[in-house]
């Protein structure tokens, strides 16, 4: 009884269908089998899109899976005679005969007797799926046709020519043994498989021989291409069918040759890529490795989803030394998932979600050493501000971004896009988050380490002055120091052109660096700065309207003025309920500035060591109220209204409490102050 256990196990696995490994056929939307060849890549790309018939099944895949799993104790023989000549195996060894002239012999056998003696006994039942030697036929098309609708496993043990298009039906499974492969030429193509491997189409997989054709044929042939070796390729690889996957096993990798070709025929596609998903939906690229380190072709993307390729997934992949963007979703590529990838050394962007593309999750990626922007959401085409195609509803979360190699580029850039959420990311040695023409954007719970200036930056456009709207910067942590030579007016949070911004609950530890800068040529308005904790130089404001600065805790141990309002006109400025400690001076100083409707009240100043606490000079005050402020522990001047200022009777200084002297000879309404 013991010696029959192996037989029972084998037959149980063979008889029971493994539907999880079911194969599928590929048909075009017109219902005709279709695949992509290199000839077509150089010509017309119309009608290339195909769909997958997901309801078909290939039970033969279960047999292939079984054979792969039985690497110990399972033998394969071409004929019974060859098997009988080999008795040097222990009892209960399982063998499979595949190509015996007597078809009933092509089944499983079990060894009887000790090694060197005994015999082989055939199973008591015929094989659940008959095995047929494909080499008995003149070519692959004939071998497939001859099987009709019978459930069959075609065993390919040598190179077989494929000169016409062959759609493998769901009743036929392919088993490749030894040097078996399919050699495509002319109009030869294979479709209809659920899973395929480049080796089945002649790939060498040593990273030296050019395997481009074999990899492309494997992609064309099935719903799921499996890469398990290092494949050098000299041509762009295309995915044109919906519901396709590229996955890797073990050391599976795509290595670009020194040049890449095969891309110019695609309308609008100017530069090559390692892999292009061309107008195909629900494509998955999982675990792939792409190395372009020896590529000399410039601007070559690693993975490109191109024009209306929706519901694409790129995950657990690694792209090294991309000569363009490492991962690029371009124009109408909605509902994307870009997760858990590692991008290193990209010559352009690390991850780019681009132009009229909606809804994406970019999460848990590691992006480092990029030359331009590690993660960019770009809603424009070209370099100007004229061809705008906004992206919307994008979540960027849990990413680790470090070491941008070109000073001046942001860690995350939001360019002419809306509804972007930047949350829970870690950015180090980059220039933070930049918004140009962005709206309804949330930047929260991120950690910025050594990001120099401009950790969060709302800027003008490239060719025109544009405004970002409704920006929330909340609960971030900034541990920063100034980039050498960076100007003081570049703040950690810089609102250069913004209408509607809330900066709240952030913690800033910034060495000799401006925390929040609202400045330069554009007029910022409708801004709230609330409940932030800042160690450093907290604020620089120039030309702003309707601004509230309230409830902040500010420390400035660096011996420099902490708040400056040096140029431009300010209107409707509320500065209330802040606590300011150490070396603090607030300066309103510019000869051309008018400050209208200033409410400077209920602030607390501690440990003043500068000569002046609040200093007004060379400005015109209209309806200014400076009241109920408390100045502790100072032997210096709490409030200084210089003779250079202009102020009318509608400006009031009242109910302030201070130790020191109010300097200045202007005729304010002065009520209840105690100095």
If you had to describe this structure to a student in words, what would you say it looks like?
The chain has 675 residues and is mainly beta. It contains six helices and 60 strands. The protein has a domain at 2-175. The strands form six sheets. It has a 47-stranded parallel beta sheet that branches. The protein has a four-stranded mixed beta sheet with strand order 3-4-5-6. The longest helix is centred in the first third of the chain and has 11 residues, at 5-15.
The DSSP helix count reads: 6
- Give a quick account of the main beta sheet: strands, pairing sense, barrel closure: 47 strands, parallel
Strand percentage: over 45%
Shape: elongated
Distance between the termini: 106 Å
Find the structural class using helix and strand composition.
mainly beta
